[in-house]
Design a protein that fits this description.
single chain; Multidrug-efflux Transporter Regulator, Chain: A, Domain 2; 2 domains; two-stranded antiparallel ribbon; 6 helices; 3% strand; elongated
Length: 134
């Protein structure tokens, strides 16, 4: 690290986000374009790394790129009402609950199919039969 500047590898290590994803986040506009050295290498400052950690934590909670963009805008706006942040998070919880319900339905169906399969040396398999059914 050179003073308060990080190269992309150092920023990746400090933030827990791969260099590839850092470049992607710049490309989609979540992260401002990095400053460049004379040799055209990307450099990041402490605030950039802090923002990358924010993005990583948001991704860990399952927020979409669009939602993270909205959260970043709210984070930067020191005059924003917290109700906007809460509303965005509550909407995300609702989406997660729907996803959990869908996953539980898939799990139940797959569990049913697994319990119907003998799992022996015979070729007949209700799992494959179900997957190939019209």
């Amino acid at each position: 690290m050179n003073g308060d500047l990080y190269n992309i590898g150092q920023a990746a290590k400090a933030s827990g986000i791969s260099a590839k994803m850092i470049r992607h986040y710049e490309e989609v506009g979540l992260l401002p374009a990095a400053s460049r050295t004379f040799s055209n290498y990307r450099t990041y400052n402490h605030q950039d790394v802090h923002m990358l950690r924010f993005i990583r934590h948001s991704r860990d909670l399952g927020f979409s790129i669009k939602q993270i963009g909205d959260l970043l805008s709210l984070w930067r706006d020191k005059n924003r009402p917290s109700s906007k942040v809460k509303s965005l998070a509550a909407d995300h919880i609702e989406m997660l609950n729907k996803k959990i319900e869908e996953l539980n339905t898939m799990k139940s169906e797959l569990s049913r199919l697994v319990s119907c399969c003998h799992g022996d040396d015979r070729p007949d398999c209700p799992i494959l039969d179900s997957l190939s059914a019209d």
